[in-house]
Amino acid sequence: MGPAPTARRVELAEIVRTQAGAVRQAARLTRGQHRALRAIAACRTAALGGHTEACDVCGATRIAYNSCRNRHCPKCQTLAKERWLAARRADLLPIEYFHVVFPLPHALNPLAQGNPRVLYTLLFAAATETLAAFGDDPRHLGGRLGIVAILHTWGQTLVQHLHLHCVVTGGALARDGSRWLPAKRGFLFPVRALAPVFRAKYLEGLQRAFDRGALRFAGSVAGLAEPTTFAAFLATLRATDWVVYAKPPFGGPAQVLEYLGRYTHRVAISNDRLVSLADGIIRFRWKDYARGNRVKTMALPAAEFLARFLLHVLPDGFVRIRHFGLLANRGRTAKLARCRELLAARPPEAPPPPETVAALLLRLAGVDISRCPVCRTGRLHIVGLLQPHAPPVWDTS
Q: pTM above 0.85?
């Protein structure tokens, strides 16, 4: 008897294309979820069109289909990430940076599923207002911080884990712009003091949202529509210890960029974590942080896997990377120039022109996609365009 066959590796796009029936078993999909699934299924297929390339030496031809560019597609984030990072290099100062994480209690997950825009927006506001208040306090710094905030909604097993990653300047610009106020080396703010302030700001915002009728209540949270029940729910959250935690500080701009490159354009699950699809069961790798980051494999029915993935599709137009304080769009250039002047730092280099896909792959992976794969000497050039001509590869109708 020969060895057991090895499981065939799959991509998220194949799971979406082949498990349409399982998707229909999930709860009613939002317009954004429909759009994300259609885009992922169609990515780099004839449904999106593309172009034909030919070698200038041997004449070999190759078809290249277009990418969907959907922000939830694991195949379409590298180019977006690299271009975003190139723009951010000019924002970084020669100082220490800190990484502070603001998680929400899991008791808020059911409410967030029906009100993602409201609860995610509140998370940005409460976390960054907490940091700004501590930064403005003369007992700590006494000036304006710079903050990059990145929303993540998932844990390693695709369950909801709502949290905000904040990269914070290790110092502040005095309100009158006269001084740079550095943080103590290796220490920004006491996280135990941050947590109750964050909790108070978030719950106050949640109460205001309830008062103005901005929250929807259905399913398991339908009872919260009653004011007394909602007040009791908030009281329970208020009596719970919330946690804010700080990770080791970054040593400088290079480490910040490396970190941002890992976190900014992540999707809920990448293709390299998928192990197999067989008999309607998806297996994928995950890190068990409670067991020393041990890598394990989880098996889920397709319906459950896709339902979990869809939890992390953001509302239409929702911005998951935001800048505050010194890094806010309004006045950012002038504020950062003043910081560099006070720090006696050189002005930033002009950002390079945007990279093409070919140049990016050559730099990151050493793969030259413009070289002919047949003769290995010629170069591929576009010789024709392909219009989208195939029917949709995924449909929920």
A: yes
pLDDT in tens, 175-232: 999 999 999 988 999 989 999 999 999 999 999 999 999 999 999 999 999 999 999 9
In this structure, the strands spanning 97-103 and 245-250 are antiparallel
**How do residues 326-376 score in pLDDT, each as one tens digit?**
999 888 999 999 999 999 988 877 666 665 666 655 555 566 778 898 999
Contacts 24+ apart (CB under 8 A), 213-221: 214/115, 214/118, 215/111, 215/115, 215/118, 216/114, 216/115, 217/114, 218/114, 219/110, 219/114, 220/110, 221/110, 221/111, 221/114
Query: Phi/psi at 357 (nearest 5 deg)?
Result: -60, -40
H/E run at residue 16: helix 12-18
Single-letter residue type at 368: D
Which tokens in the block code for residue 3? 């060895």
Residue appearing with tokens 């309100």: 175
Query: Cα separation of 256 and 249, whole Å?
Result: 9
Contact 119, 107 (CB under 8 A): no
DSSP tag of 24: H
Q: Sign (positive/negative) of CA torsion 298, 304, 309, 311?
A: negative
Please name which of 266, 268, 81, 52 lies closest in space to residue 157, comparing C-alpha atoms: 268
In DSSP terms, 160 is beta-bridged to: 154
